[in-house]
Structures
1.
Amino acid sequence: MVAVHSRQITNKHRFIGFVLIGLVVYILSNIVDEWRAYQGATVAVFVVAIASIILLTGYSGQISLGHGALLAVGAYTAALTQIYFGAPIWICFAAAVLATALFGAILGAAAARLSGPYLAGTTLALAVGLPSIANQFSILGGEQGISFDAGWPPLSFGESFTQYKWFLWIATLAALISMWWVQNILRSRYGRSWLAVKSNEVAAEIAGINLGRTKVLAFTVSAGIAGLAGALLAMTMNNVSPSAFPLALSFFIATGAVLAGVNTLGGVIIGSVALVAIPLIASSISDRWSGSESLATVLPDFIVSALLILTVFLAPKGPIEKLRSRHSK
Amino acid sequence: MFEFVNTLLIGITAGSIYSLMAIAIVLVWRSTRVVNFAAGGIALASTFVGATILETTGSFWIALPVAMLAGAALSAFIEYFFLRPLLHRSGERTQEIFLPIIATLGILGVMKALLHFIYGEKIGVISPPLSDKGFIVSGESIALSPLRLMILGIVLVLMIGLTLIFQRTNLGLSLRAASFAPEISRLSGIRVDLIRTLGWAISGAAGATAGILQTVNGSGSVTPEAFEFSLLLVFGFVAAVIGGIESLIGAVIGGLTLGIILAIILMYVGGSLVFFSAFLILILVLLLRPHGIIGVKGGRRA
């Protein structure tokens, strides 16, 4: 990592950037209405989820088609912690991160032996299988699920402080903290060894990197972040149920990661805004041009899928890298 | 005992359909190293074609081959216009499998949306050509019906056909050579690109058959969002991975194993654990044999 340019971006600059983003969200949260605040919170949730995929796939080279299952583990842990220990939500979030990281470590120990289609198949089967066991154990609440209540905002914020604004704050803070942490770990020796393993396993092993341990660590960290995303998602929905974590959710997050550019963390906001914005754009298009109901139901899926194909063809490394490479030419 | 035999029969029928889907996925993996999620969309689309033909002609035995042809054409189309440019650009020996997966996922999504748009709330009906009433053995009806026999028969005929193609014909030899060593095959005069497209086409036909049989074996009707088809795709893929994703025999073993064990769990343990046990079976097999039941460590790199 030799600095070629004279203007090197240091961690201090990045920290200022993060604070600025936080400030912008703070100001926006006071302007926008309830519905926009909810969307903002959803964007923040997807930022965390996509960052988790990018860390795993883009940096350590392991494929996961089952991140929805990891989100489910986080969400259920958070809800159970609240119900059985009456813990404040911060503790619930922490428990979600820890439990999902532990789950990820176990899964990663199996996954580290697998590669390519085997890993893709395993994670896919997990995404289909895990949420459905909620129906087997009554403690998990079956199809109705269990509630997760993030509570009303503290009274000291004033009477007009709305529920979704509070969710937006929490989700944004969590997203900023986890992104800060992720971008730091990617620059640490762990991040570098993930990249080394991804680009050439044999060379990395010769250079003294323990392949198994490195891969399991990547899975653990990624799962922990996914657990946080799951707990945040449960917060915005007030409830945790198996139907909230279908296979489509796993694909949806992977889609976001591709739209964001799976090899760079920088595009994560693009991916998550796209995931939230596309359904809205699609519904406004179908409202304007035709009242046909079938168009309205299929257009979001169609646009997302078409964008996915276009991204794979036109900007396989993601929009950010695309711009960067054009810039440097 | 009686119940157990019935469960086995149900499992074998379901498993043979998973095997067909697994074969569709294996064929594509062998020819182009792509995990083909579009196979689910191809199966779905050709089942709709089959339903339309069945509606106009009234004959299952015309609808099935037409659907297979439609599946083959669609699959070849997808390979030619989407995957071939993508793979050519990213270089032949790329280890990246994430982008092709995402591309086929995107194609799956587009196909589902298009089908939804075309058919809307209409459902495609494929009524079973034979009775699904079980044969009577010593006064009791068993789970083996003329319909199930027909399903097993079709799957068996297709598998024998595929084996003959792969083992006895020049085409089969080219198919195997092109996936084993594309450069050398090219030098010895095999049109590798054409062969790959053919591999996709055969896969499409297998997927179409799986789709039709899944519909006949299940509710008899199909919608663009049919859960049965997501299941077919996921279980087909899981079966292919269990079998080692390289081998046709492996795909059949994987499909039957999955079908039988899932039927037993559904019968004796409970419906809500079926999906999770599919994951458990997969991970148990892969922990014992990381490259599947038939797969070889290191494998061939095509």
2.
Amino acid sequence: MPIEDYKKYFEALELSPDSQLSEVRNSYLHLKSLYSNDSIVTSAIAYELSEEKRHDIVEQVEEAYTKLIDFFENKGSDPAGSKKPSFVVGEELKQYMSGMTSFSGELLREIREKLGVNLKDVAVFTKIRKQYFEDIEREKFSSLPAEVYLKGYIMEYARYLSLDPEKVANDYIGRYRSAMKDKGKQD
Amino acid sequence: MNNGAQDKRCEIWAIGGGKGGTGKSFVTSSIGTHLASKGNKVVLIDADLGGANLHTLLGVSKPRNSLTDFFEKKASLKDIIVNCGIPDIGLVSGTLSSLDSENIKYAQKLKLFRQIKAIDTDYILIDLGAGSHNNTIDTFLLADKMIVVTLPEITALENMYHFIKNVFFRKLKIILSAHGLKDVIQDVWKNRDAHGIKHLKDVVEHLMGTSVHIRDIIENELATFRIHIVLNQVRSGREIMVGASVKSVCLKFLGFDAQYAGHIEYDETVLRCINKRLPFMLTHPFSHVAKEISKLTENLRDGRQITVTADKYANRRL
């Protein structure tokens, strides 16, 4: 990545260029949530914040995050020295995975086990608490974090398993939403 | 600005924020107390001329001298600094007998600013009043560190945005005037529809596009313009994030740098102490609030800021 781009992406996430992967993720989650939703911080200055500009910001933040994650993965320059995924996805499994459209927690677990990966490895690599992945696999929706964070975690998880992050997250979040809605009705 | 002839010995911090009741005077007196406890000489100036009460927070019921003596009796500023019972802290009280702040003449204002800069001390803290009057803003701009105190409440945030926008605008105006470009901003703003300008950032971008000369001036200014945020009366982890969010809005939508210096949790003991005219930092030195104030003071002094991480608060639902 050209050095200017690299700087630009860190700037979009309001970080200095020596930031670590975990800071990149934290900043991304915070900014995404801040500009996707309404809160007192944005409502108080709504006259300066057009919807269009907010949308642009969210896109910039998304792009910066995706690019920086790639950067960290390729360079492995995270000072914490995360252990990279060491498995190889076989052709047969790849084919099988690319044909999937629905990704339940159960299925994610199955794929992970097929790849011979344990949750601890995923947690160490992504720097996301193992508990979250356990809850994601069990679809324990009530103990999962707010949607915007959850989506980030699922995308990380999917990326680790060499799945399409968007596809997995959209499917999973869809089920998460309807489950939470049902829960809301019962309460 | 670099003025080699003057020996810059003391640092001026101004505490503002637009809205009344956000705890500016409490924060000012507490920061001052912490700096003094670390061996610094501190002078606190109550510039809230319409509603001065910094003396009360320091346990002084009726200050012997005040800015009235400066404005009406031509006393010099250094002679009206009163002792407030806390070692190494001097107070310039803002209690005025008749004058109100909006009647202060331009020449008096300049004289006051000159004498503030000449005070022989380590730190000068200026406690500002509410509102975005030009006198308030000019006093704020006098400081080496511009600090805003706000609350995680929409009204406080609204007034704070309004205040810092005005501060930034005024600073640009002053800087451009100093370069003989007095009316540039007004002209742009008057013709904003023709230029397709809606927001503050558009004005700045438009100005930067008008000439290389103006762009250099503004870029220079943007490189040093910085607002320090103190978030007061925080009640939850989620509210702590408000400071980080405000910082982001300043960067992305107002176009200037802001730093999140720290937050102070809500604690009703603070109000109890104020009502008894007890200096909180001295009576409750081991409280969580006192620790947070010490930390944010040191962040301000060293130019550091806090990073609050969303994942720490992500699973907290309110």
3.
Amino acid sequence: MKNFLISVTLIATSSAALQLFMPWWIIAVVAFLVAYFLKQNALAAFGSGFLGVFLLWMLCAFLLSAANDNLLASKVAMLLPLKGSVKALLLVTGLVGGLVSGFAAITGSLAIKLND
Amino acid sequence: MKYFKLLLSLAVTVALVYLLNTKMGVAPAFGKFLNPFTGFWQNAENTKVWKDEEANLEGLKEEVKVYFDERLVPHVFAKNDEDLYYMQGYITAKYRLWQMEIQTANAAGRISEIVGEKALETDRMQRRIGMGYGAEAAQEYISKDPASKKLIDAYCNGVNAYINTLAPKNYPIEYKLLDYKPEDWTPIKVALLLKNMANMLSVFEYDIENSNFIAKYGNEEFRKLYPDFIKDEDPIVPIGTKFEAGTPKPEAKTTSYIGHRTSDLYSTVIQKPDEITGSNNWAVSGSKTKSGKPILCNDPHLRLSLPSIWYEMHLVSPNMNVYGATLPGSPAVVIGFNDSISWGVTNGGRDVRDWYKIKFKDSSRSEYEYNGQWLRSEKRIEKYMVRGKGEVDDTVIYTKFGPVVFDENFGTTDSKKNLSMRWTAHLPSNEFKTFYQLNSGKNYDDYINALKNYTCPAQNFVFASRSGDIAIKEQGLFPIRSKAAEQGKFLSDGSTDKDEWKEFIPNEANPTCKNPARGFVSSANQHPTDSTYPYYYPGVGVYENYRNRRINQLLTDGKDIDADFMKKMQSDNFNVHASEAAPVLLALLDKSTLTKEEQRMADAIGKWDYYNNANQIAPVYFEIWWNELRKLLWDEMLDKSVPMKQPNFYVTVAFLKSDSSSMFYDNLSTNEKESRHDIVLQAFQRIKDTLDAKQFTEVSEPYGEDETTEQKELNPHDWGTYKATKVSHLAMLEPFSSTHVYNGGNLGIINATNTTNGPSWRMIVDEGAMKAFIVYPGGQSGNPGSKFYDNGVKPWSNGEYFEANFVAKGEELGAKKLFLSTFKPK
């Protein structure tokens, strides 16, 4: 559990820091490395990878959009199409990041097992 | 097993990243687009906090201060003109970059680079009419004028200075959706934007359509349906004005018009709007105003689009203090006012494009016949870098008569039907100089001087000065045409010099009207002159016949005119066309067979006051009736393979009224032989079906005029709902558009708002009060995530205005200041 929480925090903070100057897919590298060095089973690795970026992306998106009165998000949520639901758009945003990070974390946790 | 799992997991991860990083069809690259660090969430700008800012910019000479007011209008205070235009470029790019680029890409025929093959044919059309060729000619010419070159370069430097500050996360949202990036801004793009405007406003020629009509239905019918002048003409230069004899000298030497003699039909034409959309402008002299000083008004009608076609700016340097509408991507104010004068434009609509049939020697098309000799053609290879496909090449052949637009490679398979297009926009010109000189102009002489540089598209420039002058001039470069030959009305012969443009009408002879006795000048795309004007120009279907008469009536009757009078006038919904057509149609309608509901509709039209207000029902019935009637009456002209121009509304009404029998009354798709009574009835009977078939969407924001009238309760499908005006995003993205705008108006009405077009900018300049009132259907920001994206749409729809903050110093904005940007040289 401790490793899980550390892992979530590490993935979220490192992803946030690196994305300031790296492309979005750096989150996959981060999740891979964290899962590689913090030993967890595959499921826990996925969970921490997913949660770390899912929460990070949703929180950042939420804060940006709140300052914008959701003006843009509600239009993009019509475009995608999500019937204009900003909540659904936030969820999709979190899912996209979470899934990539989650699968990268599984990969990391499986890679470390090669050493066993 | 370990390895298998690892590889599988790795494969899934890599595949996910790849898919989410790639644009698929119309869907964006979701990882790129949705991540909050570089994706679209970054475009969700803060709507509450506005902070002063400072920056150092490469290329700036001295400090420039830009105050933004409560509508995000920039007030630019520079210490020299170069810095002023540099800053205009920088600020415009900051708020309108994507729009500037997409409009130039469209002008240059480069949309397929962004969206792929589906735009290739549109791109080819742009290049085949010589948009790039014309822009290059203009740019080369402009660069010979050091003053113009310096200022245009400064503007481009400003745009590029802004682009250089951008990281991908700051790109406007459309770049993220379409997954591409901005490129450098160059003087050729400025020229392209001006050519784009020229292209939009040069479509009023019907050479091929007219030739087709004569070939099919003969000269006699043509004379009746397409007269140069109509009875109720109220031209820009008032009837009776004496023109100087002029010099209609080398009247183009002959009449060898193949349009009269050929039985060939042509299927290729440039698409034209169904009926004339146009613009209004007028100025009244102090003798008619409350203040004793002139008032000038202008509302150019264009396709309603977001981001708005105009960007509102206030530009101040030691040399000028000018305010008005700028064209994003191009320096200077296009429509506006300064501390001494004001001006505005409507489209002149004069025919500035002629089509020539070219005869090539052989299939290599390297030589074409001209006066019994073979001249070498020039070949211009147009390269298209089509996204997802690679390079596609197209060869366009240039002759003395311009580019061969339509040939066996484009539009037709007939190798004999080579049509080239001569267009004044291909001639070298410097329209920028006109606007620059107007921006710093002080009086009538400056105005006339400024116009000299202006070639295409022909515009009616209205003018007023604080010192009391009013004037209007139709400005453009026009070939001298032979009246006897009706030169320019039909397809011309490109194998001789007989139909060639030889000389141009002297600039001083362009129709001008200064301080007329009636106390006002006006234009609304009508004839510039009566038939006594010494130079011939084709008038077939080119000119509008309604708004001008209403404007002139209101201004003739008006006394003690003030800005409020003008505000009402720009929103005036009186339908002159309906007031003339409805009585004719009702008289021809056999009411004996009508159902009860149809009877009620006919009564509604009979009692109608001819105002197309949003809450009225009668205009809906009339509009459907009229449109259906035109389809039945002119069904002979609906065949797209033989394009012809439908006679205009005025001629159609006169025809129905006076011609009791005609071959055109017969409906070709039936066995019976219809009379005008038959088709009037049939069209009327279609009203109900059309209404039943139309999908009405609820008006999302039922703003606009009074909605609680009796009529509104009778039928929710009133004029405002039926017309459903829409301000569309440039990429036609529905959520980025303003839909279901509820208002009145229509084509042919001063408030010329129909479903897709309308007044793109309304301006009233009161030279006495030194005040200006402005509104336009959009907002200052091009970002759909800004609260300044479409905040003007509602007030525009309601006929409300904002007073321009025409301050002498930024500090005077006081509480109206949103924030201040200070820029210093690096």
